[in-house]
Design goal:
The protein is 67% helix and 0% strand. The protein is mostly helical and 145 residues long. The chain has a domain of 101 residues. α2 packs across α4, α2 packs parallel to α5 and α4 packs antiparallel against α5.
Amino acid sequence: MNLPSLLPALLPAATLVGAWYVVRPGALARVAAEPENDAAEPTGPAAPAGGVVAPIRLGLIRAAVVVAAYATVGIEVLSAFHAVTRAGIIALWVVGLLAAGAGGPLEWISPASFAAANLIVGLLVLKTLGLLLRGRLLPAATPSR
């Protein structure tokens, strides 16, 4: 394999870095707390991390969850359109990288997609419970001879 064929493999890693920057602890709090005057709160190694233990690790975990959810939903959408090809996957990660790099769209989409995913999971659980209570969760087994 040559190097150009391996470059698309860097897209998920770059998306993870961009998402980490957006969802790191205190990123949104610092933007919201920026006062209009020059008396901004201190930053740097001496500044407290807002009471968060291991903020870098927490940011990486948050980013990994967002990027993994994006990858899962993206592959499912590509699969529904029969577009799981090299070009389709590269396009998926380029869009993810642009969203993570832009920051703004990811900040708006993440809570909405989290709520939508929880709603979908809740509906699936209710539908499954309904099938279970009616005895139709699994098809009746026919004896094989």
